Amino acid sequence: MSSAVYAGSFDPITNGHVAIIRSGLVAFDRIIVAVLTNTTKQPLFSVDERVEMIRDALDDDPRVEVDRFDHGLLTDYARGKGVDVILRGLRAAGDFEHELQMANMNRQLGPGIETVFISAGDYFFVSSTLVKEAASLGGDVKGVVPALVEKKLRDKFAR
To answer: Which residues of the chain fall below pLDDT 50?
Structure first.
């Protein structure tokens, strides 16, 4: 069975993330969505809330495993899961340089682990940061995030 790890903070998951996962499922039998605990950021949602929103957005697809990734190297995490492919999403062209640097560092840190890039498609302009900012200012984020995420953002920023 071919598998890939798609790691990120997903704070919150957007329709761009969902598009990348769904496209990834065309190439891979299983995708492990690894929800990062990023100590350099103050998340809006807890890891448990993010896991719930991801599962809901993907209709609990049995081909998608949602897991926590709390510490360590992504290459070590992938190896521990028996996976040798890291899936990364690309939005605008500006993402590519940073993602290429990360891919090459991961190749250095974990020989034999490759990175596959997938475009976010029509959601190339969407980021979790922009979604949170728009929602916090009362903006309508319907259509760029899954329905449960939209509801949870409204609840978080209710005035």
So the answer is: none
Whichever domain contains 38, its CATH number is 3.40.50.620
- Distance, CA of 119 to CA of 113 (rounded, Å): 20
Q: State pTM to two decimals.
A: 0.94
Residue type, 45: F
Q: How many domains does the chain have?
A: 1
Q: In this structure, is residue 145 part of a structural domain?
A: no
Sign of the dihedral through C-alpha 74, 76, 80, 86: positive
The 8 Å CB, 24+ separation contacts for 91-98 are 91/16, 91/119, 91/120, 91/123, 91/124, 91/125, 91/126, 91/127, 92/124, 92/125
Per-residue pLDDT, 81: 97
Vertex 54 angle, CA 64 and 48, to 5°:
110
Catalytic residues: 17, 41, 91, 128
C-beta separation of 150 from 132 below 8 A:
no
> Rounded distance, CA 47 to CA 49, Å?
5
Instruction: For residue 58, give its domain range.
Output: 3-124
Looking at residue 90, what DSSP letter applies? E
Answer whether residue 55 is part of any domain.
yes
pLDDT for 159 equals 59
